[in-house]
Design goal:
Order of helices and strands of chain B: EEEHEEHEHHHEHEHEE
Oligomer: heterodimer
Radius of gyration of chain A: 33 Å
Order of helices and strands of chain A: HHEEHEEHEHEHEEEHEEHEHHHHH
Strand content of chain B: 15-25%
Number of strands of chain A: 12
CATH topology of the domain at 36-50 and 81-227 in chain B: Rossmann fold
Distance between the termini of chain B: 35 Å
Number of domains of chain A: 2
Helix content of chain B: 25-40%
Number of helices of chain A: 13
CATH class of the domain at 36-50 and 81-227 in chain B: Alpha Beta
Strand order of the largest sheet of chain A: 3-4-9-6-8-7
Structural class of chain A: alpha+beta
Radius of gyration of chain B: 18 Å
Number of helices of chain B: 7
Largest sheet of chain A: 6 strands, mixed, barrel
Strand content of chain A: 15-25%
Chain lengths: 402, 242
Amino acid sequence: MLGMIGATFLLALREIRRHLLRSFLTTLGIIIGVAAVITMVTLGQGLTADVQEEVSGLGSDVFIVFPQQSDPNIAPAPFDDADIRAVENQIAGVEGTAGSVSTNATAFHNGQDWATSVEGADSEFFATQSIDVIEGRGFNQEEEARGESVCIVGPKIVEEIFVADEVIGEQMRVGNVSCQVVGVIDERANSVGGGDANDVIFMPLKTVQRRFIGNADNVQFFIVKYDPAYETAVIQQQLIDLLRERRVIQDGEDNDFNIVDTAEINETVNTITGTMTLVVTVIAAISLLVGGIGIMNIMLVSVTERTREIGIRLAIGALAREVRLQFLTEAVVLCCFGGLIGILLALGLSVLLAGAIDLPFIFNPTVNILSFVFSAVMGIVFGYYPAHRASRLDPIDALRHE
Amino acid sequence: MSEAPLIELEGITKTFGEGAAAFQALKGVNLTIDRGDFVAVMGPSGSGKSTTMNILGCLDTPTSGRFRFRGVEVQDLSRDQRSLLRRRYLGFVFQGFNLLARTSALENVELPLLYRGESKKRRKEAAERSLDLVGLLPWADHTPAELSGGQQQRVAIARALVTDPDVLLADEPTGNLDTERSLEIMQLLTDLNKTGITILMVTHEEEMAHFAKTIVHFRDGLVERVERGLKAGAFATSGEHV
């Protein structure tokens, strides 16, 4: 039986080679279908991974809370340190909080100047945002408590105004404030405030509140890091209730703040890519169906063309199932070739498109293997009827066939 | 082995079509053929000789009557069972040679062994031996298109012989060949018959029928006359022919 399958396989290869162009055109539907699905899934995964990386720049398992009015003409009240402390002390499952304010200022050093953003952030903020200080050190508690004039700069600042100079320990002027550089942060993909996450100067929260904003308490937004073992929705609801109470919002009035859940962003992206994949899968399914009908058609032509050959095989003792196996193998091999070409095409397309729209290329072995197996199954499904027809031929009639 | 004849046909009828369009090709054929015989089947076209050969070759089944082959009641067998019978005991040679085009002589001869599940090595050995027997081993790699008609028919005979069949059925084996090639083929069949293979051959050429030991004459769907005990291989042997 094994020798039979081997011989049948070789025979199928020979038949396909004999009609190379015809075989290629026949499998085009499968090639396009397979290539479309794999390319889409691969790009979708690249997109998801890309967004996940950006979101992880915002920290994982965190809420970002900021004032926001539904009516853009009314300025919402800012949050202050007391709000943040209340959240940290009163809600179970909250692991830490960190407020932040930011403003724009020009930095000067050694004759260079550079307009950048100044952010007030304490070490808690650095921790929740996974901001790494790669040179020098972070702020210490004393500096944070007293609002001292120390700063940690982003790589962009180093590049723009320090050029070749030593950075750590240098004095620089930011707006009207003179400060000492104590650290440099690693490159980052994204920040909560948006904009270039590397073009930033951090100072202790209190320093920025006092020296730049002129208000000792207010923050523009704060981050709530929670224990993922807790139910996210429950913590979020408690957070909303607490903040409504503190801000004296009556029942029926809208919140004058917004809470962004980073996990929710991930979910949204997953939903979008899922929908896109579904749409392409439906299109691919239609393409594969048309391709399958093409395979069936060409196999029927092949059976008719080779009626005499079938007659000879039957006359010398081939069983019906052996003839069926031969034509089924041919259809399966044809479809597998289509699947293989589709996979290669998808590989090229994915790499090319991922490069063009700046997404990471992630090879997904599962979808590739599945596509190949699916191609083979298509060969069986659409090759069965022609093969069955071949096996039912009457040897006497088949031998007389011209 | 057994005393029973190799082939027994009893009251075989065959009707094609139905109702008003029905045509009775065989009207009750009785015939026995012994092991080792060389039978030539003759008769005008439409006399039923090809239909009989199809039944003898287990390619077709009779409408009624009994066909025993090696004691097996063939009319009761399924399609696949008849295929198994063909691959095990029968070899076919056709008028149109019926070789697979674009396929080498060796592969054509190997084909029946493929369906018997022989290994690649055994297939090649047996096919080469068979091609050697018909004198075509040097042409093993040639495709039918590269061979003459006589050579193609030798390949076909080699293919029929490769499974060591009990019976070789030849339907007008010399129909497409000139006299010289025809005589060569007949000589080959005679030699094979001497090794013990039973040969059943349809022909309309008397010259070729004279190589047989038995001549069966068909007319109007019936066996008209059987000449037995003829001196096989004697080209000049004469008898009372139709």
